[in-house]
Task: structure prediction
Amino acid sequence: MKVMIMGMDGYLGWPLSMYLSGRGHDVCGVDNMSRRKNVVEIGSWSATPIKPIKRRLEAYKEATGKDLTFYRGDLVEPSFVDVVVEKEKPDCIVHLGEIPSAPYSMIDVEHCNYTHVNNVIGHNNILFAIKDHVPNCHLLKLGTMGEYGTPNIDIAEGFFEVDYRGRKDKLPFPRQPGSWYHLTKVHDTWNLMFANKIWGIRATDVMQGVVHGVMTDDMVNDDLLTRFDFDEVWGTAINRFCAQAVVGHELTPYGKGGQTRGYLALRDSMQCFKIAIENPPDEREYRVFNQYDELYSVNDLAKYVSKVAEEYGLEGKIWNIENPRVEAEEHYYNPDMEHLPNLGFKPTYTLEKELHITLPKLMEYKDRIEAKRDSINPKIKWTA
Ligand code: NAD
Ligand code: USQ
Result:
């Protein structure tokens, strides 16, 4: 199958490109390299010393004999998206090419608007290019579990039955996002459902939980590593806790630490994407997958990281600090997740197992984390 990966240079996009190419797919991709620039903007860098895209592509060819095709360009530019989609005519587009950081979107009006324009307009350009050039293409769109927020009832997988004043309907499960970033994903969802309704674009809207870890089996040498961020803006809590443990920084659950989310290891996220790509929706179908392996509170995450860190001679001290975000710190959280297991998904990497891979790998880059230690503690506040 020909697969086009939007956001090929990213944390997920780079390992996914190798994973799919290594499993018989013809892979091409797009990136504008903005993630690299945006991390520098806030004074940090990836703990892993990632190579320029040109070297990544060469290293992959040297290791496997296979080619990955890459286009540098901005998804916000409609003519660029139009040209690459028309030229490559993919069977599947995996859209990972958005700004993924909640804290970045909360910095100020410029960062909020940049995130909104980048994510919503880039996605719309892909929808129009599919309609014009590859109407049968499967769009695998990365949304987030955070679209649903933390309601005090179970979370359905996209849609749920509602019985209201004697009438019944199947409706989208309510969205209650918690940042300007998460809101862009909700806007994308409505745009995708609308494009499906009017043009019949076949789509999988993936509500993905937080992905953790740094390694996949395709990273056979350091030129093939993916990025791993740990600063307050681009690092997720779990990846931050690992980096914090490596440099002897306290692990930082925010507030009471009862914030619970779905998590999955990088390797298992690859497995999920492959299953979704190889089992596309029917013609004109829009479907939603909730995608995670395990549920943890941030306090649980810190305890796991601390426990495993001690096995490597690291201290892993936990310090619940003032929460810079506006969010529920103790809440009910019980999302459904049936669609991917029904297609054969079997989680293989539990948090603890993955930590035994991530922590020793990160210890190799202790100096790089230490060099940007100032970027760890949160300074961006959600409140006015
Ligand atoms: P990432 O920032 O590492 O990757 C995104 C890539 O897209 C980057 O390389 C960036 O340069 C590129 N990009 C962004 N805007 C672009 C544009 N306008 N034109 C071209 N390229 C552009 O992020 P990630 O962690 O790999 O996440 C990928 C997707 O998955 C995002 O949509 C994110 O919201 C979603 N997601 C991620 C996680 C997670 O834990 N990493 C969890 C749930 C959902
Ligand atoms: N948190 C801490 N300590 C930290 C950092 C964060 O306790 O040092 C807390 C946050 O307050 C939040 C929780 O951890 O309650 C998750 O925050 P996060 O930064 O790990 O993740 P989040 O902002 O939710 O965003 C990440 C990805 C995003 C993806 C989302 C999936 O960056 O792209 O969409 O996870 S989900 O969480 O399901 O919405």
Observations:
- The chain is about 40% helix and 15% strand.
